[in-house]
Amino acid sequence: MFKLWLALLLMVGWLGYWSLHRTVGEIEVTNKINLSDSESVLSFEPEVELGVVAGVEEVNPTKDLFLVTRVIDGDTLELANGDRVRYIGVDSPETVHPNKTVECFGQEASSYNKQLVEGKWVRLEKDISDQDKYGRLLRYVYLNDEMVNLLLVTWGYAEGVTYPPDVKFAEDFLAAQTRARNDGRGLWSACGPQALTVTDNDLCVIKGNISLSGEKMFHVPGCDYYNQTAISVDRGERWFCSVAEALAAGWRQAQNCPAL
């Protein structure tokens, strides 16, 4: 009987030892697995930059906009890419022309243009022509939803002028200039009337216009752009009383006009 009890006691002891050894082994294995996982997480490097979703194009908040880095004068600016832009439909007093002195209200016009657009993002709109003879882009310039070209004319910082074929907003510029002149805004009170000089002779209705490239063209009633064309005597433009007078003065008839 004693031997039987001794055998049972030895068996229980062996089973306890085996169970304890197995538990310790599992703990060691578990610790190794946890350590391996921890090291794996710490050493993980994402393949894409944080904040950028792979496969999705980054949204550009300034798409189709251009940064204005410098205002040159009242009707010209420079973009961050180096392009220079000449406003369509307006002419401000000169401040940087190499052959002219600073004109009346020129500094004020330049300062106003600078206040409006320098350091800001603008949208550009083309009419027909792409560039002038100096290589400047010819554009309508928008700040948010406001056309800067029209603002300059509306508040008397520039005259409205039309150089065909870029006449999309010619009537708007003419109307804005008429209001500015009647209200005595800006250059119209500081410098006196200069543009849209109406002839005293009702028979002298031919408009002698000078384009941005310096070409002299005249428009007779019936020309496609006659109503949109404004005359600025300050720029050397003038009225003629007959076609013969215009031709003799060196002007040629504009395109899209009735045959002579």
Quickly list its features.
4-stranded mixed beta sheet; 6 helices; OB fold (Dihydrolipoamide Acetyltransferase, E2P); 18% strand
Write up this protein:
With 260 residues, the chain is an alpha+beta fold. Helices cover 32% and strands 18% of the residues. It contains six helices and twelve strands. The strands form three sheets. A five-stranded mixed β-barrel has the order 1-2-3-6-5. A four-stranded mixed β-sheet has the order 11-9-10-12. A hairpin with a 2-residue loop joins β1 (66-73) and β2. α3 (148-154) packs parallel to α4. The protein is globular. It starts with a helix and ends in a 7-residue tail after the last strand. Mean pLDDT is 77; it is low at 26-60 and 193-202.
List the helices and strands and how they pair.
Layout: H1 2-42, E1 66-73, E2 76-79, E3 84-87, E4 90-91, H2 106-117, E5 121-125, E6 137-143, E7 146-147, H3 148-154, E8 159-160, H4 170-183, H5 187-190, E9 206-210, E10 216-219, E11 238-240, H6 243-248, E12 252-253
Parallel strand pairs: 3-6, 10-12
Antiparallel strand pairs: 1-2, 1-5, 2-3, 4-8, 5-6, 6-7, 9-10, 9-11
Give the distance, in angstroms, between the N- and C-terminal Cα atoms. Answer: 145 Å
CATH topology of the domain at 66-190: OB fold (Dihydrolipoamide Acetyltransferase, E2P)
Strand percentage: 15-25%
Largest sheet: 5 strands, mixed, barrel
Strand order of the largest sheet: 1-2-3-6-5
Determine the fraction of residues in helical runs and give it as a percent range: 25-40%
Overall mean pLDDT stands at 77
* Uncertain spans: 26-60, 193-202
How would you sum up the global shape? globular
What's the CATH first level of the domain at 66-190?
A: Mainly Beta
The class by helix and strand makeup works out as alpha+beta
Rg over C-alpha atoms, rounded to the nearest angstrom: 39 Å
- What is the annotated CATH architecture of the domain at 66-190? Beta Barrel
Please provide the ordered H/E string of secondary-structure elements.
HEEEEHEEEHEHHEEEHE
Q: Helix count, per DSSP?
A: 6
